[in-house]
Amino acid sequence: MVDFPRHLGFFIPVVRKTNTPRTGLKRLAMTKVIFLVVLVCCLILFIASFGGRFGLFHQLTLESLGPFQSFATKISANINGVWDDYISLWEIRDENKRLRQLLVEYEDKFNEYAEVYSIYLGLTDKLNFKQKEPFPSITARVVGKDPSYWFQTIIVDRGENDGIIKGMVARNENGVVGQVTQASPNYSKILLANAPSSAIDAMVQKNRVRGILKGAGQRGFTLYYVLKNADVAVGDRIVTAGIGGVFPTGIPLGKVSAVRRKQRGMFQEIEVEPAVDFQKLEVVFINLTEKLSWEAEMQDVSGEGP
């Protein structure tokens, strides 16, 4: 069809393509021919596979269909690979969840075993201490604690019914814990050695220089009344002096952590790190020596009577 637009003032022929029934029939016929050719080639290749001959026509057919078969094979392999990866991903996800659950269970078991092992080591140390030390003692478990600063005390599950009396010394495998201040039939209160109201006669182990060790709460101890000319250095061991008869001589108290010598005054300022960790007390040993001495004195008094 030819149109002649007139708005430009002159005639320009314009040709437009139109779809006619003949064009549609040509396309349909072309599609049928291509389909028949591919079908015939496939049949020839199929028949040739059962024969012994492999001629030129067979070769051309194989060369024509080979690329299509190769392309189809690659697509099928890629699809299978993607599907296998998808299935594997789900399997890995389930395995990951299972392993995470096992990890949590093993961590719980490990924590239980670690706690049991820690208790075993602690009890072993306490047993060795009790077997090694010559003084008679009774084991007491800590059941309570007074958090006040000035009177830092603990409550233990031993009392007068177990032979505990006021003034007895409490120790553990590391050193001095404190002294019994009150006793009821089944429980006792022990004043900790690091309480500010506590004072112990102490000395430097290497040269026997004496002083008074006072509690400083969380800061440990302070050793007072040591002259400036005394040889005291960081790391020196501080032990009980044995004066007064409350604490035997040589029980560990701590180590010197700081030494200060001021220009004024006669004495040094000495800080001592406790040998006992007062925050982790669970079991203490109460020295029964004073109880036995008191009973022996009572027997002597009764024997002197008429």
Overview of the molecule:
This protein is an alpha+beta fold and 306 residues long. It has a domain at 194-275: Rod shape-determining protein MreC, domain 2 (Thrombin, subunit H), CATH 2.40.10.350. It is built from three helices and 14 strands. A hairpin with a 4-residue loop joins β5 (169-171) and β6. Residues 7-15 and 294-306 have low confidence and may be disordered.
Features:
306 residues; alpha+beta; Thrombin, subunit H; 6-stranded antiparallel barrel; 3 helices; 40% helix; disordered C terminus
Number of strands: 14
Write out the CATH superfamily name of the domain at 194-275.
Rod shape-determining protein MreC, domain 2
Helix share, percent: 25-40%
- Give the rounded overall mean pLDDT: 78
At the fold tier of CATH, the topology name of the domain at 194-275 is Thrombin, subunit H
Helix/strand-derived class? alpha+beta
Biggest sheet strand order reads 3-4-7-6-5-14
- What is the helix tally? 3
Q: Uncertain runs with pLDDT below 50, 5 residues or more?
A: 7-15, 294-306
- Biggest β-sheet: count, sense, barrel? 6 strands, antiparallel, barrel
* CATH class membership of the domain at 194-275: Mainly Beta
Note the topology.
Elements lengths: L1 E2 L10 E2 L5 H28 L7 H77 L4 E10 L6 E4 L12 E3 L4 E8 L4 E5 L6 E6 L5 E6 L5 E4 L12 E4 L11 E9 L8 E6 L8 E5 L1 H16 L2
Helix pairs in contact: 1-2
Short description, anyone?
This protein has 306 residues and is α+β, with helices and mostly antiparallel strands. The protein has helices at 21-48, 56-132, 289-304, and strands spanning 2-3, 14-15, 137-146, 153-156, 169-171, 176-183, 188-192, 199-204, 210-215, 221-224, 237-240, 252-260, 269-274, 283-287.
